[in-house]
Amino acid sequence: MSVAIALWVAVGSALGGVARYWCSGIIANLVGETFPWGTLIVNVAGSFLIGLIATVSGTDGRFIISAEARQFLMVGILGGFTTFSAFANESVNAVRAGAAAVGALNVASSVILCLVAAWAGRSLSSLILR
User: N or C, fewer C-beta in 10 Å, the chain?
Assistant: First the structure.
């Protein structure tokens, strides 16, 4: 791994983290915090975008970008934007607070929706590449 790529990933991670903080906060203000909607929406959106970018910028993609740019976007920005650790912590907190159904719903919806979003991103990019 080159130092230059590592620095680009670090910059992307900072940008993605700030975007996650901003988006999650806005969503929490809009719909409340009885369910971790902000983290769920951010993770689903990030999963969609990573599926889209991975396909359109891959070796068979229409938009060939450098390895550095892919690392900046996918590992840096989207890695910083999505957050498995917050998802896990919020799910555990719900269970510990006696809201096991909320915790289970968060786990199930996050896994299913993020997988569907990644698939949708790849599918959309396949249409773009036709």
Answer: C
